[in-house]
Amino acid sequence: MENNAVLDYTTLRPTDWLPTSVKEMKALGWDYVDVVLFSGDAYVDHPAFGAAVIGRTLQKAGYRVAIVPQPNWQDDLRDFRKFGAPRLFFGVSPGAMDSMVNHYTANRRRRSDDAYTPGGRHGARPDYPTIVYSRILRDLFPEVPIIGGGIEASLRRVSHYDYWEDRLRPSILTDSKLDMIIYGMGEKCVLELAARLYAGEKIADIQDLRQTVVLRPVNEIPEPDAQNIILSSYEDCLRDKKLQSFNFKHVEQQSNRMDGGATLWQPTGNCVVKVNPMFPAMSQGEIDASFDLPYTRLPHPRYKGKAIPAYEMIRHSINMHRGCFGGCAFCTISAHQGKFIASRSRDSILREARQVIAMPDFKGYISDLGGPSANMYAMGGKDKSKCAKCLRPSCLHPSPCPNLNTDHGPLLEIYRAVDALPGVKKSFVGSGVRYDLSMHRTGNARIDAVNEQYNAELIARHVSGRLKVAPEHTSEAVLSVMRKPSFELFGKFKKVFDRENERNGLRQQLIPYFISSHPGCRLEDMAALAAETKDLNFHLEQVQDFTPTPMTVATEIYYSGVHPYTGAEVYTASTPEQKLDQRMFFFWYDPEYCTAITRALHRIGHPELISRLFGDRPPHHRQANITKREKTKSTGARKPRPKRR
Fold first, then answer.
1. Where are the domains positioned within the chain?
2. Which of 140, 413, 472, 548 could form a disulfide with 163 if both were Cys (CB 3.0 to 4.6 A apart)?
3. Chain segment 79-88, per-residue pLDDT in tens
């Protein structure tokens, strides 16, 4: 296939995918491979799936790459043996999500499905596949380099709190049999690594490659300076949780530096984990090159048409950029992709749109024209020299940075260009929209007018019946910990939404996301949330209980009890009972919760909210069965979305 060509889907052959079997490898005329990639996900040849991106990137550079999707780790290990030893290295990834988020709910209950597996069945990957796969490969091929990548390794690159085991774990590099971690978005790094290995360098000698993590002898730790930050050791963090929290401040700040930041060193056992700086954000040409690779955009034929839920969500979607400068306390996007936005060119986006249009099942509707945050396309600092010095983890909190360009004009141009393509009836924005960006008054009359127009066009032309936004809470104190804007701004956006619906004769819904049990949130905050959202006529459905995940501010607070930036103590609901008590307020309208909520309001000294929630009708006297309710609601609550590449 030629790059950028619109595929003729009727002529695709198994050899149009990267090989997943020896038979497919031989059909390509190969008798060896350079790289074998092991993935916890099914193989979908699409730019939203990491194994496909890395595989196609290496293929474009001339390397022979094979993929082993969801290998069986419980049999005779034939999946791990079938390609033999590659000439360069094995790559190991759990897939597009951390395996523990994929497997377990916020209550640590095993999920019954897996969105990245054909048929949605669970059990196709182990817990911590990075560790499991790498240990198997090390036993079978002791001399071959093993490189870890993807979300799991990236966000566990230094010591981290593991919610599912309820303990602080060291860098995954020390728990696994990996030689190296590539963290973040890996195209640039993996190409340089492959070139150096191909040139004859030994993996043990490659210890200065950007965006990698390696283990080094303790005696290599340098004196601390502007280019080298020495973190508290893993053992010291075990003894004092606050040290773990303070470590995170350095990790987050350096991950968000425009130039990639300083090298981080964390002593662990008898060695030191060395985290080399990130690459700067991709240029437009570089990100175009990644998205313009010859993906088939389809699951591999080996799945015989079985639906892969995560793919079904994004099969007719287009991702326009990477990175996020929102810096939300519970989110890992900037830790993995960075806060500086890498935006694709108009031509690259339109090329992919034409590929979507050519798909046999395309009915004229692009499901999502977005990104990690839907409306950050082409945005960044106006004066880059200021950005180069900046250590702010968020460009939006506590208020939008004066140096931030929030012009939505380029985004509107993309929307209009895609909608003008023959075959497109409508393009929708399915990603979450940052209304604090589009509502922000800059003082520049032109930009403010354009942003008002953006809101109007978004609501009138790009909503598939429901627009998703994420106020996350109503309490100002909780929102401050979350690094989210005031709930008052959501109210203003709702008025704009309602006005545009009325103006255009539409009956669309605004769907707000909310989180319970987030650090800083007390029971009275949830009670107020219930009352305020009830006053706005919302019966909430897109909700979730806070789940601590590696490498977020909120997780460090949950684990340590203190804020990484201030050292101030922050209350966090942590027991199952505390979390369920908070969660029930989402469902104040369900009679099953009426009695429990009434008792809780008396207990916390807010009986005045009883009539505000329930009116004059007496509380339902049947005791709420919270455990039963949690079982039923947890399956319908806000679930993790596929991570955008």
1. 9-212, 316-430
2. 548
3. 999 999 999 9
